[in-house]
Design brief:
By secondary structure, the chain is of the alpha+beta class. The protein is built from 16 helices and 34 strands. A five-stranded antiparallel beta sheet has the order 6-5-4-7-8, with no helix packed on it. The chain has a five-stranded mixed barrel with strand order 9-10-11-13-12. Strand 30 and strand 31 form a beta hairpin. It is globular and about 75 Å long. The two termini are about 55 Å apart. The mean pLDDT is about 90.
Length: about 700
Amino acid sequence: MVENILRLFRENKILSVEELKEKLNIESAKEFVALIKKIGRLEERMIITQLPNEKFLYTKEKIQAEGIIKVHAKGFAFVYSDILGIEIYIPKGYTQNAMTGDKVLVTIDNVNKNEKNISGIVQKIVERNTKYTVGTLTNAKFFSFVKSDDKNISKYIKIENSKNFNLDDGYKVLVEITYYSKTSFEDHQGIIIKTLGHKDDPGMDILSTIHKHAIPNEFPVEVEEEIKTISEDIKFDDRYIDCTQEMVVTIDGDDAKDLDDAISVVKTKKGYKLKVFIADVSHYVEENSFLDQEAARRGCSVYLVDRVVPMLPRKLSNNICSLNPHVLRYTICCDMEFNERGYIDSYDIYPALIKSKGRLSYKKVNEVYENSKETIKEYKPYISMLKSALELSKKIRENRQRRGAIDFDKDESKVLVDESGNVLDIVLRERGTAEKLIEDFMLSANEVIGEHFYWMQVPFIYRIHEEPKVQKLKQFFDIAANFGYRTKGNIEKVEPYMLSNMLQKFKGEVIESMLSTILLRTMNQARYSTSNIGHFALATKYYTHFTSPIRRYPDLLVHRMIRKYLFVGDVKENTLEHYSEILPKLAESSSEYEKRAVDCEREVDRIKKCEYMCKYQEKRFKGVVSGITSFGIFITLENTIEGLAHIKTMKDDYYVYDEKNMLLIGTHNKKVYRLGDEVIVKVDNVDIDNQEIDFKILKHKSLVNKK
């Protein structure tokens, strides 16, 4: 058996006990016990070693693996290998000048059995991830160079064609890197592809960030030509059910322009009838057209503080597809019958022609629910429907909470800017009753569509969310326990209701925002997939994205499949094979482009928050300790701006970091900084280039719950 085990390890390099059992055709309990003993002896002899993922790695020979590298600012890096399913630590000086995102070949050179750490050396860079970058130009006597905005590109880029552009210092340019330096003594080389403008021009910071994240900002000529051929005339069509006489309305933010969802709610004898109408973008965007290819390349619209980078040209997104009031629009309807308790009894999915009876705003619908007499008078035609909608929404939400769905009701900020992009203010973004109502209705429609096509057993795209990693959860529960909040149940087999109940325990407490943020960080990122494994946070087995085809490509795909499978009735073998072939790659790219958009949106927010804090260097702010590290304390202000009070600035004592309990403890005065403590701070420094804010703590007050 030992020889067979060693042979399998030499061939596969990494194996689990179950994989060994299967490959050795072990069936009896006696043979399985013998296998476990042999594995134990091989581990004792350091021939194999167990990894954090429970698999065993063959350590008798040097093992090489490819993976994507992530380089830390301090020079060390990590490489994740999909094949081995492990993360490999790369010490500083052994990265071969690789940059974050590059595919590299790594040789594993050390496995620490006690700490289960795996380290290695980058042998070569297989594929560069960064080909283009945005940076600021500086002219020297004989040449010009660019300092990239990308933190991962620390070296200057020597420009080969700067004379062709005749630019002054300070211009922002898009550069193609033509040569990557192979030593620490030389620079990269590149050519200017495009001039963006001077770094001090209005809006240049945001435009640079868009290009930095490689987000397509202009539509190709082919798309512009194709969009001209689309008629704006919308006529009655026998293929669409006529719903133009129904009380259908949109409810959106005041500044929304792409209105892709509308609702109709009617109280019935048995309960409620909810119709969710979604703009039928698939009517206009045909598969493999230039429009479709560009939408897939963008993946989603990107919403920034002063602009939107749309997935579709504005002729579609803001006009023909947008469900504007009092005009005919093609839609796809998810028609749901709810009983008195708020559960769905039946549903139908069909193409519908609508004419919205009003463009309602979140603000004014919230005022209606707050009994504002003036707004109630203005919204008189809609009051009956809004009342029924609120009743149904509450029941849907209660049912979702009952099944254990996790609701991260966190404060979010909104950056207000003037026409030049200068920050006016940063305010909390409201999530009132109207916002939650629309969310409830859209979630219901997404669940219905997801379940329907799951049981049809056809190729489909789902929105999935895996359960969190146990190690991360343990850290959260340890932190929560320090505040007196404990949970029942086995976190090795965590259920959504356990985390939902925990959120309820500290709801309304001063540490609510901080603890819910830590819990949120334990969560995996939701993504798109052709395999339906359910949505952990929503505590549902079936979920997809159906409700935003104007701004999300997966929703457009879902609409296209609804049309193909349901409306046309085409479930032929070649159709199913076609979608089986194209969907996995589109699901992966859509997830990737969604992350790209979120990263860009967050970076722009950080830039604007830094600009805002530059104006208030002497002002005092109240904040809460939201993170503690060995190098300082992270503090979040009431307007959600986060900054760091570096330990070097805390000169009243020498502080020691207690990692287990996440504390900073003064060695002389015994002052203790804990998560959730209240502090008064002032701005010490603002670094807009790196989007970092440094605070100086002026006052400190412990608000730890005594229980």
